[in-house]
Design the sequence.
């Protein structure tokens, strides 16, 4: 099967770099699957899971918390604000993130800050629900 180059980068290091067959990306406008020869685009990322399939049909999963994805017809680069292996993400950990964001929301000084934090909380709640469902299976 055809492949493309994928890189996952955090602020302090290159976390993954390889040829892959496909990657599911949590884009800000919705999840999309990157395949070879995808139309170019740049999108911000939602909090969620990045699932990639390697040429040997094994998959890897990472959780990303914010960032940007840049797609060309031959590559995908994800610049994540923060990332961790998906197996390390728990509903309890996400609940702590939600509580922290709610504290910041209560102290927000303007409507834009409140809007951004409200969106972050909604994304974290959705992600928590998905993680909980996956752990139940």
Sequence:
């Amino acid at each position: 099967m055809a492949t493309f180059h994928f890189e996952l980068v955090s602020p302090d290091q290159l976390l993954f770099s390889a040829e892959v067959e496909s990657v599911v990306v949590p884009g800000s406008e919705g999840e999309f699957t990157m395949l070879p020869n995808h139309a170019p685009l740049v999108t911000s990322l939602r909090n969620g899971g990045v699932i990639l399939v390697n040429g040997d049909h094994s998959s890897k999963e990472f959780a990303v918390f914010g960032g940007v994805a840049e797609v060309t017809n031959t590559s995908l680069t994800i610049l994540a604000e923060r990332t961790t292996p998906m197996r390390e993400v728990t509903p309890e950990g996400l609940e702590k993130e939600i509580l922290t964001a709610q504290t910041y929301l209560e102290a927000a000084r303007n409507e834009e800050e409140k809007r951004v934090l409200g969106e972050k909380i909604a994304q974290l709640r959705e992600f928590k629900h998905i993680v909980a469902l996956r752990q139940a299976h």
